[in-house]
Amino acid sequence: MPTEGDMTGEGKTDSGSGKELHGSKIFGYERNILFTGLTSFLTDTSVKMIYSVMPMFLMSIGASKASLGLIEGVAESTASLIKALSGFWSDRIGRNKPFMLIGYAISAIVLPLYAFVISPMQVLFLRFTERIGKGIRTAPRDSLIAASVTNNETGKGFGLQKAMDNSGAIVGPLMAFALLSLFPDNYRLIFLIAGIPAIAGIFVIIFGIKEVKRNKTELLKKFRLRDYPKRYWFFLAIIFVFTLGNSTDALLLVKANEAGIKVAFIPLVYLITSLVSVVAAIPAGTLSDRIGKEKLLVAGFLIYAVVYLFFGLNVGEGALFVLFALYGLYSAATDGIQKAFVADVTDANKKGTALGIYNALLGITLLPASLIAGILYDRVNSSIPFIFGAAMALLATIMMVVYMITGRKQPAKGSRR
């Protein structure tokens, strides 16, 4: 239960820098973290309404499985450099909110336009444009979360962000399922309605989120590789290896459909993943603050390897529901934790840039990952891309264990603001 201080909005002082944060607490969370999470919830409701039915819609207008991977990979990768640039620029000017406002506004405008496309290439164009919006907002948003955290609880802060994000991923598919049940195969109606929550998210940013002020002397002047610790770059290498086997989730949905799950129930299958992730994200983030984020990441990579291995073994419908639940557990143990880890190992005036590079790497690597998976799916068989993903996850797990062992031989850097 929140205390009186939590609800009255008393400011907190960051013990690492001695400066007051804007992070008035509401229900135990700094207001910036809570309202950023609400924005993500609304936007992800819109995105997942569309994403949960997009593979079936694309195939209904003539797309192949390889093109599913191509569309997702090109859209993510070509917009990925923007993530690094926006993170760096937010560090330069010491502001995050304008980038968030522009980025979320682009998505809110683009999402309803899917209702008017007639070819996969038009979907690619809109997907690319929408990802530009995400590229603009992602690193500054994550930087704002890191700067708003108190008591070094980065895992808890990013855990809430992940939980809110995936709460939208529950509501979105549910709305898509309801609309498909009432209006079978009417994907375009879903796309039109999907714009409403995203627009609401813009107002949350305007009225709910405040900048965390930084002194001009603390602002980042220029980018130099040597200003970032070697272990940061090692960690990015691990993420690259893992992501190379982590292709678009669209193939998981296609696999579920081919295994016998009806199209109308595909959004509900994806909902299972999001529900488990929501329930587990905050406990996983809090646990990572206590026992170390590296251990949670090792567990998450191993869960992913198991899930993809069994997807490759062509299990039955019942087992697929279990695998989608485990996939949600993997998500809770990795997505927010990775961002929190990056925030922990970098200095205050470099967090936006560090998180931008991290997010850019994920997007860039998704292109070869999705192309490899799509081609293997179409030209070899439906099992190979998932077995490949499991193998890459196991390799990343080994690298993460090496990271932990070598880290014990040197003093911890800790979280620095």
CATH topology: Growth Hormone, Chain: A
Number of helices: 17
Estimate the mean pLDDT confidence.
82
Tally the structural domains: 1
Query: What is the name of the CATH architecture?
Result: Up-down Bundle
Radius of gyration: 20 Å
Order of helices and strands: HEEHHHHHHHHHHHHHHHH
Total beta-strand segments: 2
CATH homologous superfamily title: MFS general substrate transporter like domains
Main beta-sheet strand count, sense and barrel state: 2 strands, antiparallel
Helix content: over 70%
Could you state the oligomeric state of the chains shown? single chain
Calculate the terminal CA-CA distance, rounded to whole Å: 29 Å
Shape designation: globular
Describe the 3D structure.
This protein has 17 helices and two strands. 56% of the residues are buried. β1 and β2 (29-30) form a beta hairpin. Strands 1-2 form a two-stranded antiparallel sheet. The protein has a single domain, classed as MFS general substrate transporter like domains (Growth Hormone, Chain: A, Up-down Bundle), CATH 1.20.1250.20. It has helices at 4-8, 31-51, 54-60, 65-78, 80-93, 97-110, 120-148, 154-182, 187-193, 195-208, 230-244, 250-258, 266-291, 293-312, 317-344, 351-379, 384-407; strands at 25-26, 29-30. The two termini are 29 Å apart. The chain has 417 residues and is an all-alpha fold. The longest helix is centred in the N-terminal third of the chain and has 29 residues, at 120-148. α6 (97-110) packs antiparallel against α7 (120-148) and α11 packs parallel to α16. The protein is globular and about 55 Å long. Helix content is 73%, strand content 1%.
